[in-house]
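Write out a record, focusing on structure:
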Amino acid sequence: LAALGGWVAALAAAALPQWRQSSYAGDAIITAVGLHEGLWMSCAAQSTGQVQCRLHDSLLSLDVHIQTSRALMVISLLLGFFGIIVSVVGMKCTKVGEEDPVTKSRIAVAGGVLFVLSGLCTLAAVSLYATQVTYEFFRESTVPINARYEFGSALFIGWGAASLTMLGGSLLCCSCPATDRRGQQYYRQSQSSTTREYV
């Protein structure tokens, strides 16, 4: 559930346009128009409540950090999607592969690994974007401080999504091998008891 919730949050973070937003720091505060930018579009919110959004026109004209964050988020969502499918197959509550519990638990571990990789990709994408926003905010520039950008809400959602996804994947990876070991010990004990009966 944690990994699934993290994947849904990562999907929401990737779709939201609030990866960075206009800063209200400084003396001359401008509140008439709020600017937001995301991986796929940029938006302008008027003080009247009207919001206008425009998709990024060209892929190749985008900054490198936006292209990299896009790629990492797409890879993260794909890994998480396959992690959901593999984990459902490996869960004890499903009927698929009930005849071989060891293989079933190994499938669950594979799903956990996919979730951990998905969380790492989300973490890398969000942290890379946040690093670039921080660099542009604090560098010496002629742009006034209230016309610069700072962290948007999607970055915090992305960090939370990465944490949840990696937590869920780690729990899947840690819980299943212990079950395998108990099953192997029980199998060895039963095997030794049957050999004693034959002796």
Remarks:
- The first strand starts at residue 20 and ends at 22.
- Residues 177-183 have pLDDT under 50 and may be disordered.
- The helical segments are 2-15, 64-90, 101-138, 153-198.
